[in-house]
Prior knowledge:
Layout: E1 2-10, H1 14-32, E2 35-41, H2 45-51, H3 57-64, E3 68-73, H4 92-102, E4 107-113, H5 126-129, E5 134-140, E6 150-155, E7 158-163, H6 169-184, E8 189-194, H7 200-213, E9 220-225, H8 226-235, E10 242-245, H9 247-259, E11 268-272, E12 278-282, H10 299-312, H11 316-331, E13 334-335, E14 345-346, H12 349-358
Amino acid sequence: MNKKIAVIKGDGIGPEIVGEAMKVLDKVAQVYGHNFEYDQLLMGGCSIDAYGVPLTDETVSRCKAADAVLMGSIGGDTTTSPWYKLPANLRPEAGLLGIRKALGLFANLRPSRLYPQLAGACPLKEEISSRGFDMLIMRELTGGLYFGERKTVEENGVTTAVDTLTYTDGEIRRIAVKAFEVAMKRRKKVTSVDKANVLDSSRLWRKIVTEVAADYPEVTLEHMLVDNSAMQLVKDPAQFDVMVTENMFGDILSDEASMITGSIGMLPSASMNETKFGLYEPSGGSAPDIAGQNKANPIATILSAAMMLRFSFDMQAEADAVENAVENVLDNGFRTGDIMSDGMKCVSCSQMGDLISAAIK
Ligand code: NAD
């Protein structure tokens, strides 16, 4: 298969970790007989330095012309970098919001998996962590409270702030469809999280998700209130497969879910539109404190590339091969500095990329 991948290496550790993911993709192409063509583009701080803006129309149109986008991370040290003396709309992060909007990426997928080899980093009790967990939070990214009308008014000496939580049936339907499609490629269970005992928007959410479920008889659907979900995540995370929820609930729950794995350098993410098109990036930032030192953990970016193979290119066996290669390397005791523990072998970013590539059979 021929696939064109737009590559945004970005700033800080971005070029290092994306370089290793490309190394792994090249090995997948070689083993499985594919051809991956890369179109390398600038975004974030490096785009500000080159063009004066964090995101150019050229970068957007070349991303749209690709089959998927692989990204590192953008931004610099927010206290010392000159990028943060610019107005907010010209800072590196404005590029990130701009590209998500320009590409219509409304579904954010964040897998949260506890690797048995790294269970020691999990802050939960051993009786819970020993069961392991492998879940994915799908967060609606372009609607809800963060995009509703807001205002602050002062009347008769009283200041009132208003935020509006709005969802249309169409916005809920498209994210619900995405959640069921992803569940079909996993363990076929969807937990829809809402606050239907209080909020109208949640009652509509529950109704539409239930309607969509009828098209996926193989998938088990359960509804859960958001407060209970926050508790269940730390009590019994193994019960979840795909959790789908609105923007703000997803923002909070996805951070909770990543925290209980204990290792940010291991967590991939994807943002998708209605088609199979997506932007794939690690959950962490540009880590300016370790940039350029060949120390960063490339696994989150490599696993993001695996998500791209699975969800954008429908290459299940290839995605499995990358994920198995990561497990194999962890099984053999290799660790980057951020996940290092006693008795393990500490390797650099590029050595980790070499080891994972070599483990792809
Ligand atoms: P960060 O995630 O970059 O770093 C937090 C800590 O985690 C640091 O100690 C860092 O060294 C470590 N870390 C992160 N990724 C790692 C990896 N792959 N391997 C080893 N260690 C890793 O968060 P921050 O310091 O708050 O932000 C730094 C910059 O990144 C800021 O400019 C911020 O705006 C930006 N940022 C970008 C994105 C993105 O591109 N999507 C996301 C978050 C933050």
